[in-house]
Give the backbone structure.
Amino acid sequence: MEYICGICGYNAKNLREGPRCPSCGAPLEVLINRRWGIARSAPSMWRYETMLPRSGDIVTLGEGLTPVRRVGGVLIKDETRNPTRSYVDRGSSVLASNIYIDRAVISYSPDLSISLATYLARREIDLTVSVNGPVSSSNEIIEISKLGVRIVFGDLGSNIYYEDPYMIEGFKTISYEIYEQLGHVKRVCVPAEEGVLAYSIARGFKTLEELGIAQESPEIVATTTSHRGVVGMRDVLLKIGGVRIERIDDQDIVEAIIELSSRGIYMRPISATSYAFSKRVRGCVAVITGSEIKRIPYTNPRRIYSGLRVTELQKRIVEVLSRTDKGMTAYEVWKRIGGDSSLRGVYTSIEALVRKGVLTATLSLRGSRKIKLYRVKQ
Ligand SMILES: [Zn+2]
């Protein structure tokens, strides 16, 4: 794979010098032959597979294809609907589908570490999350610990970066989706701390323009809190063209947080800035980047099996059940597994997994029928 800078055209043969362009500081992108197309039956951002780098099996938990809806008169792109409840899942899915390492060290950062850990666990990569400073949410740390990853304190240095080119390619799918869902829009408003997401979304629209798909890119408004000062990548953002930075007052942020919470959306103050700005300025699509409430949609098989002997069929059963938290009947599991396993074999394996404490069984009513639902024990 080769990498390219979307601002100055610098070409990198590898990432030895890091994920940013050594010439202008912009995050690098993956150099691939892109073709615009939508696989309409794909229920995730992988519907834009021809726009994404791919070197092996896709690691997906159904990320992307998030709804656009109107809340309080504002059109929002609701990224809290992603598997770990933030836009980061888009990047994590592309990265996990293209990475070949045995060990990963991720520095704790809100939204990022839980998402990366979830996706990389799926590749069975040995994971460590290093915490170096205060954590912003106890719920998030609890969920990360449930994944069975190592949590250590201190700065270990990480070997995976937020602005990795594969992450950027995943973030760009937000632009592709807005284009598919709404056609041309005037403005897209994006919360910005460092500015990597705003950069990626701006580049996503430019990519559509470069391919001759979209005639014109929307203006990107990168919003930040007033006390935060400057956005980290301010200079890079301003070089793209069509990007402006707005600071949002605390009062507007607090009002936005309260308003969104009444619609069941809970977020960190920075995430509410795009909504707060879009309340004031018409014609904006506000990207709501993530929810403050986290829940891992997937259980790390290494943690489930530690110290247990399990058969291949039992592993497949756990794999199927770990994708849902609603629970499934033995019959539904058997249907999902397909192949040549018998219903009786599946049933016996499920019962064995219940005895081993890997699965739980609960009785439930479906209509007037009593059914037994199985789940992976959390
Ligand atoms: Zn550059």
In short: Residues 196-210 form the longest helix (15 residues). The chain has a mean pLDDT of 91.
